[in-house]
Specification:
Order of helices and strands: EEHEEHHEHEHEEHEHEEEEH
Distance between the termini: 58 Å
Helix content: 25-40%
CATH architecture of the largest domain: 3-Layer(aba) Sandwich
Strand order of the largest sheet: 7-6-5-8-9-13-10
Bound molecules: S-adenosylmethionine
Number of strands: 13
Structural class: alpha/beta
Oligomer: single chain
Largest sheet: 7 strands, mixed
Strand content: 25-35%
Length: 262
């Protein structure tokens, strides 16, 4: 909840005026009208992502953390993202690129934007490092020499050649997908484009444990499936392989000779 003067928090274990909490430290205990003890803590990014208003399915915290590591998102990086959805990944990326980086998000549905940006504002203090492009990422990416392209769209194979033109050499392409049929199609498209190497797919399973003095065991329930993360790196086209016709690298190599000879 957001604390407001004169407001009251209502729960099944009693009420608690916000005024009692305002001005106190995080981690303090409070007593409701029914005598129940409650702890007050500022939500973490994970807490907020799981509870925030959603316009679409969000990427779960276990995947957000791994996406930042697998895409090697660093302070100062320029990241192209698609799509905005509920803004969970955008907020995580903004926090990772920090004050000197930049996140450009492509989103095709304008009606998703207001709710998602409210989430991003709540989560990412560096909101000014965010740019939104209302448009279809399948039609192209206008930015060039970017560090990372991070996708959460249904048909990322339509973005492979655009990402190859947008990324600098060594840049990382990452896609999050819910089904393995989509992963297969994406990996085929990445493999067919000789500029992408080190193509890898992982799934992240996070199993929480119950640890008490008498019982040490996995908890009975877990989130069994969210999605697959596929990564690839933009490299020089492999010797003997032809990059897709009409791409920038093809044109450049006709003029300059093979990239490896430079
Ligand atoms: C699953 S949601 C993204 C959720 C988001 N990553 C999050 O964590 O909240 C997918 C989003 O991609 C957008 N989208 C789908 N196809 C697109 C395209 N071709 N170009 C841009 N955005 C697209 C959808 O409108 C939707 O908002």
């Amino acid at each position: 909840m957001t604390l407001k003067a004169d407001s009251v928090f209502h729960t099944h274990v009693g009420t608690l005026p916000h005024d009692q909490i305002i001005g106190r430290q995080q981690g303090d205990w409070f007593r409701t009208s029914m005598g129940q003890g409650l702890l007050a803590l500022k939500p973490t990014l994970s807490d907020y992502v799981l509870e925030m208003p959603r316009g679409s399915q969000v990427i779960y915290p276990k995947d957000l953390g791994n996406i930042l590591m697998l895409a090697d998102v660093f302070p100062g990086a320029t990241v192209i993202e698609a799509g905005l959805g509920s803004g969970a990944l955008t907020a995580a990326l903004l926090r990772a690129v920090g004050h000197s980086g930049r996140v450009v998000t492509y989103e095709v549905r304008e009606d998703m934007v207001a709710k998602a940006l409210a989430n991003v504002r709540a989560l990412a203090p560096d909101f000014d490092r965010h740019e939104l492009r209302i448009g279809d990422v399948y039609q192209g990416i206008v930015e060039r020499q970017v560090d990372r392209v991070v996708l959460d769209v249904p048909e990322p194979w339509q973005v492979v050649s655009h990402a190859a033109e947008a990324l600098h050499r060594g840049g990382i392409f990452l896609s999050f997908l819910p089904t393995v049929l989509q992963v297969h199609r994406l990996v085929e498209a990445l493999t067919a484009d000789s500029r992408f190497q080190l193509i890898e797919t992982v799934e992240v399973l996070l199993r929480p444990w119950n640890v008490t003095s008498r019982s040490v065991r996995p908890v009975h329930r877990m989130v069994a499936h969210t999605g697959f993360i596929t990564t690839a790196r933009l490299c020089a086209p492999k010797a003997g392989a032809q990059p897709p016709p009409g791409t920038e690298n093809t044109r450049q190599e006709k003029e300059d000779g093979p990239a490896d000879d430079r």
